[in-house]
Every structure is written in structure tokens, then in C-alpha cells.
């Protein structure tokens, strides 16, 4: 069996959680491969709303195995909070969730370092989620990290203290005066809770399962434009959010990858700092934010809003090898007279269609095509036949520009507000 991948093509928050939940009945296993509690994946069904941070979005559909892969960074305290809430709501989490022993641990001092790094950057700050993501991946790459598997060894506390003391020295040199004693107690309690889960060599589990004919969906976090290599560096996250990240984050060989679902909003958003060529600072931007409830699931921050950017989307489709597109939040544009799509950038008077090395706002002017709005409430539609002509034209326009089929269209936050086009 091949493994399918679902990931974001923009700056995150495309609606990955909703669609993973919708697609889960087609799969035996759902696995997260990168990122950590910087993610906030929102699911809505049966009148309830759930936000997942580290646990895969396949957890609510009957009996699927969910895996947290080696590429993920895990905060024991936040994990315990999230997991206990699920257990309290009746999900048999310990039966359904397996966690890679190779996943790296976020220490309390990683969070403090994240904050101190941001403070030190002053006006150039990245606007991170403050969850310690950058410092934890930094320690992983510089070979100073602490992996979950270490928690099973006798000298875990010594290893922890060594890492903590290094961080504290660093924090003091940055002018901070850290006290982690209280957090540290919580952290070790949470480690004990984590140890009550099945900690596995997830690369073996994944590959053996595929060999046995089981199907796997890999769930991305963040989005392609936040990828550490291909995103708007340095205003990115610290992991590879692209398809290749599913290979390194789960131990999947590249020839095991099947379909790649690329997910995008019918417009575009970004949270945190960094360039955003199609950002709208006017009433239209505000209207998108209000109608789309564009406020962060993790930090509650206002999301910046703008028109869809096809230059960036084409780039994301290329890097990820997207085979199927999924368009989200179409309903947010229901009341617009006109909809714009950026089809090229103008840089110093020159029209370019290849996503450039730098997208600093000052030098880039988006070139727009204007399409008529559909001015129809899409939210209660059940089949493709009901979709209004102007909306179908928008879909067709995007498919032609992006040279990739749109296989799912989302018309509301609920699980049921989803139109599957390729049956
Ligand atoms: P993720 O991080 O990619 O999983 O996305 P988030 O959950 O952070 O953000 C997407 C938001 O849009 C959530 O609040 C979803 O409930 C909501 N949402 C998802 N799909 C749709 C849709 O088609 N229409 C509307 N109006 N909201 C949606
Ligand atoms: P999901 O999975 C949107 C952004 C932060 C910041 C930058 C770096 O819900 O789509 P980090 O804490 O990762 O070091 O922050 O990346 N960011 C996200 N933006 N959705 C996310 O996740 C994000 N995860 C990180 O706002 O700009
Ligand atoms: Mg999100």
C-alpha cells in the first residue's frame, strides 16, 4: 500500500484538521509527521468543536490507529492537557494512539528560550506561537535534544538536567532570570502520563502496516509557505512541512508516497510576522476576517487576510507533488460581488510567475484577475449539482491555472459541509 499525504499549501490554518477527520474513514492509520503544539487543528461535528494540537485529527472516527511520528516535537504538559480532555470525553485514547520514541521533547526551558529569542529580535520578531518549537528543533539538529524514548532510561533525569542547565546559562546570558521549578514538576508528572501510552518505533509500525495492506494518511501541520527550506524564510516554522517531511518524519521511503492532497483556502491568511504579497489592509480584508472567523486557534491572534495567491500556490503544488487539491472556506466569499486571484507578481516593472527568492512586500505588486462572485449561500448544499454557476466557474478557473483537479470543496466548518467531487 502507498501512504497518502495531506498538507497545507499556504501559511497554515487551511482547514487540515477538518478534512483529515472527513477522510479518516477511508484509512486505517492517521499519522502526524512534523511540527508540535504550534499547530491548532479545529474539527466540528454534532454541534461540538474540538481543537487538536499534537494528536492527529483521525482520533474521532471509530477505532482508527493514530500515530505521532518521530518528526514531531512533543510538549508533555500540553500533550497531557489535550489527551486528558479527550479521555474525559470518552475517547479510548490509550488504545488508539501510538507515539514514536524518537519524537523530541519540548522542555520548559525551550519555551522560555523561544520567548527570549523573540524578545532579542525586537522589531524583526517572527511572531512565533511561543511553544518552544524553534529551540527544540535547534537542539535536535545540533544533537543536543532529548527524545521521548530517553524517558524510559534510568538516567533520564540527569540527561534532562544537563539540557536544562545549558538552556538556563543561555537564558541568563540573554538577560533573563529563569525559574523553572514549578514547571519542571508539572513536566515530570506529564512525562509519567506520557509513559502510560504505547511508545513505539513508529517507522517499523508504519512500514509493517503498509506491507500488511493497511492504508495510511499522513497529516501535515503548518503550511508550505512556513516550511523552513521553501517558505518565506526567516518568517517560517522550524520543520519541513512539505511532502518530503512525511518521509523523514515517519520513516517512509519516497516511493511509498501515493496521493498528495494539497489544501488551501479560497482566499489566503497568515498569522505572525513576515511578507504576504496579497494581504489586504482595507475593508475587504476585514470582511474576510470577520466572515471567516480568522483568529488563531492556538494564540487567539488576528489572522492577516488577503486574496488567493496562485503564484505561491503553484510553487507549493510543485514542491509537494500535489495530485489532488482541496479548497476550503469557499462559503466565506458567498457575499462578495467580485473575487480576485493573484496570477503574477510585478517586480520592478517586470511580470513574474515563478515564486521568487524573496517576497518582501516593498518590491512586489500582485497582478490580479477579477472574477464575478456567486452571491449564494453555499453552506447548506449537499451535492456538486447544486453549486451555482459562478462558483463552478471559479473552481474551473483555479483548476486550469493550477493544472491540478480540485477533488474536495469545503463549504462550512462542520464535517458534513463537504462536497467530494471525485467519487
Ligand atoms: P488547520 O490548522 O489547517 O487545521 O486549520 P484551523 O483549524 O486552524 O483553521 C481553520 C478554521 O476554519 C477552523 O476554525 C475551522 O473550523 C474552520 N473551517 C474549516 N473549513 C471551513 C469551511 O469550509 N468554511 C468555514 N466557514 N470554516 C471552515
Ligand atoms: P496549523 O497546523 C498558522 C506560524 C507562527 C509564526 C511562525 C513560526 O494550525 O496550520 P513557530 O511557533 O512554529 O516557531 O512559529 O509560524 N505558525 C503557524 N501559523 N498555522 C500553524 O499551524 C502555525 N504554526 C506556526 O504564527 O509566524
Ligand atoms: Mg490551525
Written description of the protein model:
This protein is an alpha/beta fold. Helix content is about 30%, strand content about 20%. The chain has twelve helices and 20 strands. It has a ten-stranded mixed sheet, with helices on both faces. Strands 14, 16, 17 and 18 form a four-stranded mixed sheet that branches. Strands 3-4 form a two-stranded antiparallel ribbon. Helix 2 packs across helix 7 (about 180-195), helix 4 crosses helix 5 (about 135-140) and helix 4 runs parallel beside helix 6. The longest helix has 18 residues, at about 155-175. The model has no long low-confidence stretch (mean pLDDT about 95). The structure holds guanosine-5'-diphosphate (GDP), 6-O-phosphoryl inosine monophosphate (IMO) and magnesium ion (MG).
Structural class: alpha/beta
Average pLDDT for all residues = 97
Report the end-to-end length measured between terminal Cα atoms: 20 Å
**Number of helical stretches of at least 4 residues:** 12
Low-confidence stretches are none
Query: What fraction of residues sit in β-strands?
Result: 15-25%
Which shape, going by the Cα principal axes?
Answer: globular
Ions, cofactors and other ligands present here are: guanosine-5'-diphosphate, 6-O-phosphoryl inosine monophosphate, magnesium ion
**Rg for CA atoms:** 21 Å
Q: Characterize the biggest β-sheet.
A: 10 strands, mixed
Please state how the strands of the largest beta sheet are arranged side by side.
Answer: 9-7-5-2-10-1-11-15-19-20
Instruction: Assign a percent range to the helix content.
Output: 25-40%
* Tally of DSSP β-strands: 20
